[in-house]
Design goal:
about 90 residues, mainly alpha, about 0% strand, DUF6489
């Protein structure tokens, strides 16, 4: 059995129903800041420096996530070798 339900609601109504915050003002301010920096430094415009304050924390979290996955995959291989000594190379 397959049941499909369609909701015809706006993004604002969707946010309210699910209790999500309204970040439109934040996004607008962020884009205004980016535009101001871009127009203020047209000659020496460096996009990496422009976005660095916004992504520096997220890059560190990606590194931590990648290290966690690497550690988990290594631990899984070690556990298999311990469980089945015949798999040791």
């Amino acid at each position: 059995m397959k049941v499909t339900v369609d909701f015809d609601i706006t993004p604002e109504e969707f946010r309210k129903v699910f209790g999500l915050p309204d970040v439109e003002a934040f996004q607008r301010q962020l884009m205004d800041d980016i535009r101001e920096r871009m127009t203020g430094g047209v000659e020496g415009y460096d996009p990496i420096k422009l976005f660095q304050p916004y992504v520096s924390g997220s890059l560190a979290s990606w590194d931590m996530f990648q290290n966690m996955l690497t550690n988990m995959s290594g631990a899984g291989a070690t556990k298999r070798e311990v469980d089945d000594p015949a798999r040791k190379k």
